[in-house]
Every structure is written in C-alpha cells, then in structure tokens.
C-alpha cells in the first residue's frame, strides 16, 4: 500500500513540478509574482495616502474635531445613526468640527471616529464621553438622577436594539429596495453589483446579533413596541426629558431619522399616522440643529 | 529539457499504467515542448485515478459509508427521543408551562437571565410551570423556550407577551401603570436584555475566559468549560466582535456595564420596586439581570454593585425573598 500511495502522490507531484517548468507554468508563475508585487505596491501606496491624510487632519486646529464618517445620504445627512448622533451632538455642544469621508472606518472597523489634537478615538459613546469631559460639559443639563437613568436607558435601547430592527428591515427583509435610493447615486451601481457578495456576511451579522432570527412580523412587533415606549416617555415635553435638550436627544434624533427616512415607506407611514409626538419632535430637533439639512445631502 | 515522448506513454490522454511502478521518476518520460500542458494534466488524471483504485481508497470509501450509516442511525434515534419528550410534555396539564432551559446553577437558579426572567414572571403571575433540561435549545437556536398546551414558543420576550395575553394580564400591578411608567419599564428591559447582558457575557466568557464561571457551574456543566475552552472560545470571540461588544477592551466593557447598572439604579431610586410600590412584569427582567451581575459574573462586578448601589442590593434581596423564598433549596450543589 505504501508504495502505491507514494507512487500515486509522488506521481502527482512530479507531474505538477514538470508542468511548472513548462512555458505555461512559467507564465503563471510570472503572473503570480506580478500580482504579489502589485499587492505590495498598493499597500505601500495606501499607507502613504493614510499618512498624507493624517498630516492634513493634524492641521485642522486645536480642539477642532475631524469627524470621519460615511458620505452623506440623499435624504438625510448620514445613513449611520451613530455618525448622525455624533454630528448632532457636536452641533448641540457648539464644538467646531470638519467632516472627512475619505476614511470613514477607524480602528476596530467602527464608523464614526474622530481625530482631535492628533488623537484618534472610536465608538460614538466613548467619543461623546471624552468630548463632554474635554470641553467641560458643553451641553448644559439640569437633570435629576432618575432622568439620567431614563435618558441612558433610552439611548442604549435605541442604539443597541431598535436600530438593529431598522437595519434588518432595510437591508435584509426589504432586500435594500428602499435604502438603495438613499445612497449617493454614483455608488448605487457599484453597490448593486457587489450586493451578492456581502449579503451572506450581512445575514450572518444579523443572526449573531439576534434580530436576524425573527421574521418580518416579529421584527416590526419589537420596533413598534419600542417606538411606543419612546413616545410615552417623552409625553408632552418638547425634548426627551425636559424643556431643554440634553445629550440623550442626539441619540433619539439620529435614530428617529433612520426610522422615518431610512427604513421603509410602510414604517414611515406607520410612524406618521400613530406617533405625531415623535414626528413633531423630529421636526423640532431638525429645525434647531440642522437648519442646513437640505445642503447636507448628497445627490 | 525533457526529451521527446517516452516509451511509457501512448499519446497525451490518460494512458494506462501497467501496474504499480517501482520508482517515481522513471514512469514519466518526455512530455516537454509544445505538447506540455495536455500531456501533463493527462498524467495527473491517471495518477489520481490510480490512487482512487487502490485498496487504501476503497477502505476510505467503506469508512465513509459506515459513518453515513451511523449518522442516519443517530438522527433517527434523536428524532424518536424528541417525539417521546414532546409526548411527555403534552401530558403536563392544561396551561402548565414547560420551561426548557439549562440546569440550575450553584449561585443563581439560572445563569441565563432570560430563563430566570420567565421563571420569576411565572412565580409573580401564579402560573404553574415545570423545568425541562433535556432540550434547552429551541427553534431559532434560542434558549430558553417553552411548551404550553402543545404549542412551542421561542424568545423570552415573545414568550412573556404570549403569557400575558393567554393568562389575561395576570400581574395586576402591571395594569395599574401609567403609559409613562410602562414606557420606562420597557426601555429598561430592552437595555438590560440587549446590551447589559452582552457586556456580562463578554466579561464571563472572553475577558475572564470562564475562570469564575468554572468555579460556580454545577458539576454536570463543569465539563462544558473544557469543551468551551478547546472548541468554542474562538467562535465566541468572533461572535462578540460581530455583535460589537467584542471590539472593546476590558476597561471599556466595564465602563459600559457599570454605566448601564448606574442607569438601573437611578431609575429604581428609592422606590421598593422598579416602577413603584408594587412589583410589575418589568421587575422580572430587572431582577434577573441583577442576579447575574451580583452572583454570576465576576467578584469585582459584585463588589462594584455592593459598594456603589445599596438600593440595587436591597431591591435584589426584596425580590428574592418575595418570589424566591426557596432560593437556597433550588440551587445546585
């Protein structure tokens, strides 16, 4: 048996090595080498571009936030609720910032992320915590501990659950049919072509998250239940917790934008018909912090 | 350069061998120049075919068939046992909940807050239930799940929603809540179930690599720790990365965990229960998560809660004595 194996395996190897020495084999080897060199070249070029960008960003100015995020959507300033939350927060806190869309994803693959005074930070909540301390509470808040408790729970509910119901609906359940028109037009064809490639990892992402195990009816059940809770907690107050806006309003506004304008026509209809309070709140925040809303959109 | 076509080959196709060759190199003669690739791949195909015909390969095929037969046998047996179990559960009685979950823990009745939430709710609502630990995973690969009157329901929140409707809102105090209070209850429940628990899981399984869990799991689950460390720890890390929480460092995970617990403490305030003077459905979620933080995450997390949140500790004791007076008897040894 041993010599049969060796002959079989050895014969295969010898044939392969013989073939590698042929013209075709040599051509393939040259192609592989060229591809490897191209890969190395691209990587070096990419590193140079990154270095150049960072030099540019470091000239933004002291305490000026360079906000790295995805490009603007066609009907809202950003399709990522976390980027929209952070940008809204910067406006609420009157923190000077510039937008960069060249490198939207930072360390650990997160968007948004910021550069400030040469330092790079990621995760919208960690960033907001840092900026609140760095700029010494730029959003004046007079909240009781109980109000803080509710505000924090609202932010976590929206950012860690509601948004996944929204995202699952817009990417998987509706197969991106609605959200496609929210991407800038020059990317749409590319996204359409690449869609089959990332559909499977996207489904896995939602499955691991948990929401991907539910059907449409169950997903909307959870989404609408949480919107009901959001409205009931707001009541007839002009902002989430009080007469004056607080940090938590940034999260509420960003998530509501996604629900209304970045989910599905039926969801928008449902919210407009059943949650006038939330719609009014959205208009109020938009008028206050996004008077340039129309200009902050792509074509 | 290899010479012209050698005597051993007739043409480029899968020429036959006359038997196992004594040496390797000698068999392949020639095959250079223009006829190269076709000749080469023909030689490859013949080589592979010879391997496939060998006794070694036949044995492998027999092994594969044997394994397939065993596999089918196991599957049929599993399905038979499943049918048996379901027949058993159907006999539990009308409106008796069969709660499928993992075995009891030694420091907490269940290390899954979702199972503990359903159990606490059933006790609160006076719903009769029995525990089954033979089939803890339900459809949608979720645990816990329930069987009631022959029907199977997955996901703890869908289960609670079903039970509330089926038993016609059995927790009276929940009905007396204002919409704003109910909203606070819902928001808190979602925060705890969808975020805080993920952070606790990060601490238990990834950051501490199950070191603490290994000491508190009952004997029958202890062997799972070794299996976990060998096979699943990479899978869990990757899942946590996808979920988001796995991208954080340990200080960041604890930052978020303690911030969520602070919000829970602030919402509870000086009230005896989450939303007022009486326990409501949402207290099941709050109590279950708190039990995990205090009893089944890590010593430093317990210390943090005990030192900073006296109201949470008292709330935990209050709920425990009200709905879990048999706590010590129920725990595994």
UniProtKB/TrEMBL annotation, chain A:
One of its GO terms (cellular component) is cytoplasm. CDD domains: GST_C_Metaxin (cd03193). Transmembrane segments: none annotated. InterPro entries: FAX/IsoI-like (IPR026928), Glutathione-S-Trfase_C_sf (IPR036282), Glutathione_S-Trfase (IPR040079), Metaxin_GST (IPR033468), Mito_Protein_Transport_Metaxin (IPR050931), Thioredoxin-like_fold (IPR012336), Thioredoxin-like_sf (IPR036249). Residues 81-174 form the Thioredoxin-like fold domain. Residues 225-285 form the Metaxin glutathione S-transferase domain. Belongs to the FAX family. This is Failed axon connections. The lineage of its organism: Eukaryota, Metazoa, Ecdysozoa, Arthropoda, Crustacea. The gene is Faxc_5.
UniProtKB/TrEMBL annotation, chain B:
Residues 1-18 have a biased composition (Gly residues). InterPro entries: FAX/IsoI-like, Glutathione-S-Trfase_C_sf, Glutathione_S-Trfase, Metaxin_GST, Mito_Protein_Transport_Metaxin, Thioredoxin-like_fold, Thioredoxin-like_sf. Residues 1-32 are annotated as: Disordered. Residues 113-208 form the Thioredoxin-like fold domain. It comes from the Eukaryota. Residues 259-319 form the Metaxin glutathione S-transferase domain. Pfam families: GST_C_6, GST_N_4. GO terms for cellular component: cytoplasm. Belongs to the FAX family. PANTHER family: FAILED AXON CONNECTIONS-RELATED, METAXIN RELATED. This is Failed axon connections. It comes from Amphibalanus amphitrite (Striped barnacle). The gene is Faxc_0.
